[in-house]
Amino acid sequence: GDVVNTYEGSYNTANGFSSLQSNTTGYYNTANGSHSLYSNTTGFYNTANGFQSLLHNTTGYDNTANGSLSLYYNTTGYNNTANGHNSGYDNTTGTLNSYYGYNTGIGITTGNANTIIGANVTGLSSSLSNNIIIADGDGNRRINGFSTGNIAINSNTDVGYRFDVNGTCRVTGVLTLGTITITTGTGTPEGVVTAT
Can you tell me the mean pLDDT for 63-72? Predict the structure, then answer.
């Protein structure tokens, strides 16, 4: 591949046309794929695998991007992990984000400390932080853990409850609500408890 100026950094590996093209003093970087880590100057401990992965990274460090266009717009963000084509694509300065799945985490630019699992999770707030999202392959968010510590099932909205289920919920065993304990099998019909 075409590798330029990496002699000024140390312990770098570049495979692919224009990979690590702009590197000056960055070190311990690995770039595999055309234009991977292309803009990196002083960033270190980055791993980019795939066409234009971490393309715009300049000083960001400790990032791992696996898949073409993964962490594409990252510039100074650090400690991010993206696995899958286009994953973490919009991330610019966000840190400590984990993106797992094709085209996922789209919309987050400056947000921090998110974990996104599942393909096609898009339309997220640019500053979304401290959230956990588990989605299916179509991008339908099935479980959401919000920065407040609240959890929602089958809902994308934090409505202020520690645990919120949008739909029918089944409990086997004992359900405790504050100081009230409900044992399944005592409702009518058996196993169904209703409240108004």
Answer: 98
Sequential DSSP letters for 6-57? GGGSBS-EEESTTTTTT-SS-BS-EEESTTTTTT-SS--S-EEESTTTTTT-
Specify the 3-state DSSP secondary structure of 171. coil
Query: Amino acid letter at 131?
Result: N
Residue with tokens 């266009």: 69
State the burial class of residue 160 (Cβ atoms within 10 Å of its Cβ: 0-12, 13-18, 19+).
exposed
CB within 8 A of 157, min separation 6: which ones? none
pLDDT of residue 196: 42
What span, in angstroms and rounded, lies between the C-alpha atoms of 76 and 173? 49
pLDDT for 13 beyond 80: yes
pTM score = 0.88
In this predicted structure, what is the pLDDT of residue 169? 85
Instruction: Write out the E strands in 63-155.
Output: 64-66, 81-83, 98-100, 115-117, 132-135, 141-145, 151-153
Burial bucket for residue 53 (CB in 10 Å: 0-12, 13-18, 19+): buried
Between the two ends of the chain, the Cα-to-Cα distance in Å is 69
Phi/psi region, residue 73 (left: phi>0; alpha: psi -120 to 50; beta: rest), is alpha
